Amino acid sequence: VMIFRLHQDVDEVSSSVRTSVKGVTFTDNRIWDTAEYTIPMQASLNLMSATNSFFVTTNIIKTENQLKQSCPEYPFTKAICSSDNDCKNGSADILSNGIQTGRCVVYNATFKTCEVNAWCPVQYTENPPEPAVLRSSEDFTVLIKNNIKFPKFNYTTLNIPTIFNNSCTYNKTIFPLCPIFRLGDIIQEAKQKFSEMSIKGGIIAIEIKWDCNLDSWFYDCSPKYGFHRLDDNKIMPGFHFRYAKYYKLPQGEEQRTLYKVYGIRFDVIVFGTGRKFNIIELIKNIGSMISYFGLVASGIEVAICVVSYSNYSKSAFCKICNKKKYETVLNPRQVMYVSYVDEPHVTLIKKPLKTSLQHAQGSIVESHPVKFCDAGSCCTSESNECCDNEESEPMRTTESNKNDDNGEYELRQPLRQGASSPDCPKWCCCGKCQPTPKYHEQLCCRRKKGQCITTSHWFQQLVLSTHTLKKVLLYKDPFLDLTDGNITNQMRHLAYRQYIHWRFGSFDLEDRAIIPSCCRWKIKDTYRK
Question: Do 201 and 289 belong to one domain?
Answer without folding.
Answer: no
